[in-house]
Amino acid sequence: MALVSFAASLSLPIAVAAAAAAVRSRAVVLRRAMSSSSVSAAAPARVGVVQMTSVGDIDANYATCSRLTKEAAAAGVKFLCFPEVFSFIGSKDGESVKLAEPLDGPIMQRYCSLASESSIWLSLGGFQEKGPDDSQQYNTHVLIDDSGKVRSSYRKIHLFDVDVPGNMVYKESRFTAAGDTVVAVDSPFGRLGLTVCYDLRFPELYQCLRFKHQAQVLLVPSAFTKVTGEAHWEILLRARAIETQCYIIAAAQAGKHNEKRESYGDSIIIDPWGTVIARLADRLSTGFSVADIDLSKVEAVRTKMPIAEHRKFDSVWKSSSL
């Protein structure tokens, strides 16, 4: 009798624990189902990625951007992504600082009007925004919606101060102030994570955008050098897509801008599995490539490979010293 009573006393907490586990399991399934149904309810969105060769002429660059925007809108694109320094690439040190403007200045207002007239969202990576003083600018990624409103902006955090082997010395911080804020924003194309060029080499930024800011699409407007692009461009982009299970839209500068500067090109769009789903026919031409962003694919990849549930970094990893 005592043995039966003891067994019965054990079975109660075991049954309670089992029931609690079942409830938790059902809750996880329900959250996934709700998330999947809400994401898949949205139709795939057509997006475009631009490749261009900006020069030291604001009007000429705007003419190129305007033409590509109108062509993309006519092709059904709802969101068009331009590369870093889309509006101006100078040939002399400090030239861009003199042209830097606030985001409500006339240069950006032209692009706001372009977005509104074309009924299209624009990602404008690497605008020369007026900095904290007259000697500095910000390298700013600007997001404009289809009504012509600046929806969000991100100031590049990681500045390109390097001596590229076989190339030249770059010192972006000489005229550019670094940003200090991670930016993600909701849009009709999913939750967008904003970055710029050299940020690509710092995976912790992309991990933060995915796991702390719930990004689904990561934007990487760039002007990679020819040397670094040949070595690392595609592999870094595909790695960021795989690690975060996000779409990547990477608009790139291409070709020779002047006697001193040349960019690698190769504008591409990558899906959450790490597959390149759009790119231009070559690395030098000016134009755009198109793909459909389907957020149900983001959810499918994350459900089948649930790294967010397996991730230990925030709660387990601890630093140690000897």
UniProtKB/TrEMBL annotation:
Keywords: Hydrolase, Signal. It comes from the Eukaryota. Residues 1-18 form the signal peptide. GO terms for molecular function: hydrolase activity, acting on carbon-nitrogen (but not peptide) bonds, in linear amides. It holds the Pfam family CN_hydrolase. Residues 45-295 form the CN hydrolase domain. The keyword Signal applies. PANTHER family: DEAMINATED GLUTATHIONE AMIDASE (PTHR23088:SF27), NITRILASE-RELATED (PTHR23088). This is CN hydrolase domain-containing protein. It comes from Brachypodium distachyon (Purple false brome). The lineage of its organism: Eukaryota, Viridiplantae, Streptophyta, Embryophyta, Tracheophyta. The gene is LOC100824517.
